[in-house]
User: Fold this.
Amino acid sequence: MKKNYRIAILPGDGIGPEIMQEAVKVLNLVGEREGVTFTCEEGRIGGIAIDTDGTPLPEETLKLAKEADAVLLGAVGGPKWDQNPGHLRPETGLLGIRKGLGLFANLRPATMINSLVDASSLKPEVVSGVDLIVVRELTGGIYFGEKKRYDGPNGEVAEDQCVYHEAEIERIIRVAFDVARKRQKRVVSVDKANVLESSRLWRKVAERVGADYPDVELSHQLVDSCAMQLVRDPKQFDVIVTENMFGDILSDQAAMLTGSIGMLSSASLAAGTFGLYEPVHGSAPDIAGKGIANPLATILSVAMMLRLSLGMDKAADAVEKAVGDVLEAGHRTGDIASDRSKAIGTVEMGQLVRDELSKILN
Assistant:
């Protein structure tokens, strides 16, 4: 009897539906070759949900996601909804689904594909071979702490409270160590322990948890030093784990090492194996419907889903190799093409990846 996985498909806005179509085709090909079935059920989120349901996150979408084994999301947002009040902004749907699904761990890989080395703003010898991942705590810290604005003796005062509980720190540190065990077995925990009390607790917990993983090397860096080292010598990193705000900043910095944020996948994980997977790039409404969007970040998000939520490591490796082989052969969508007159479209890129994947999974 075939194994069956339920996947919630949330195309979203802009180029979301176009890139999602190609990602689902890749997923179905994996299913055919690996003898599993993917039951893909579609839901609305973001701007399209505001237009049709009056809310960026309909209850039925959240229910669909909760009943699935994993969620694959396209992109949300666009100028059409920019002037909406906060509760009717597409991005509110993203925050709502992360909270509703308990997604506390954000994983952002930054892997340099050899054929794209020249696209980076850094020297080839610095970025060639970069393969790191940032593990960011997603539901705690200053973003979720109490916020105040009030009048003081010298004008307005603003306060943002940063609070971390030991259990919150421990669970994200364990995610990082578990990820590292499948990679190069090195974790760098990033904090600001020379200044912040929350960081001193963070470092203490990291040391305690690290003792449970004697096969994984643990080191610590201050966040400002880490930012510098990411530019100076990014190849020294394997897994970086850090709190919410530091992770927000460092993951974007790491992403740009590869030269194109449009190529990058991400995962947001809950306890256990459940996760939501999405490309890092936005909805690109300016090119929506033109058939020129790059589907590779979404396809690589499928690979992350196969590996992290479904335990299909071989298939995940195959998808990533297929993408690499297509790029090595010189095929490019417009966003990564040095000569845009030779760029290919969304559907053609998806087909090339599937052709390569078919050979690999034979």
Remarks:
- The chain has a mean pLDDT of 94.
- The longest strand covers residues 3-12.
- The chain has two domains: 1-103+270-362, 104-260.
